[in-house]
Write a structure and sequence with these properties.
With 129 residues, the protein is an all-alpha fold. It has one domain. 77% of the residues lie in helices and 0% in strands. It is built from six helices and no strands. Helix 1 packs parallel to helix 4. The longest helix is centred in the first third of the chain and has 25 residues. It is globular and about 50 Å long. It comes from Bacillus cereus TIAC219. It holds the Pfam family TetR_C_8. InterPro entries: TetR_C_Firmicutes. This is Transcriptional regulator TetR C-terminal Firmicutes type domain-containing protein.
Length: 129
């Protein structure tokens, strides 16, 4: 492949990683045979595998914005698919999304000594009660 300059190379690599990430989240949203916790664990596994690239994307601030949008879509889809009526005072989608992004960003930057399963459990417990 030929790139115009270093920025063009970075832009194309970033775009490729974000597209992969987007496809993974879309697959998880539509996975029928997985529990919510299993979906979250698989997403965290994916992020762990790609953590070296993610560190670079963090510094470019592109990944955090994309992660927010993807997780927001996941939460909105989950809420639309729920059989229960949610109370009016239920946590706003943006607030829940921001907290998840914060946890994931912390985990990638500082908490990789915790397994993806452990983090998924903690997130599950946090939102369960």
């Amino acid at each position: 492949m030929h790139y115009q300059d270093i920025q063009d190379l970075l832009d194309q690599i970033t775009s490729e990683i974000l597209n992969e990430h987007s496809n993974k989240i879309v697959d998880l949203i539509h996975a029928k045979d997985l529990s919510e916790k299993q979906k979250l664990t698989q997403l965290l596994d994916y992020l762990y595998i790609h953590r070296n690239f993610l560190f670079i994307l963090f510094k470019m601030n592109q990944f955090e914005e994309q992660l927010f949008l993807f997780l927001k879509q996941l939460i909105e889809t989950r809420r639309e698919n729920t059989k229960k009526n949610l109370p009016d005072d239920y946590v706003a989608v943006d607030i829940k999304t921001a907290s998840l992004v914060g946890i994931i960003m912390w985990w990638i930057r500082n908490g990789l000594h915790f397994s993806s399963d452990y983090i998924a459990n903690q997130i599950y417990l946090m939102y369960k009660g």
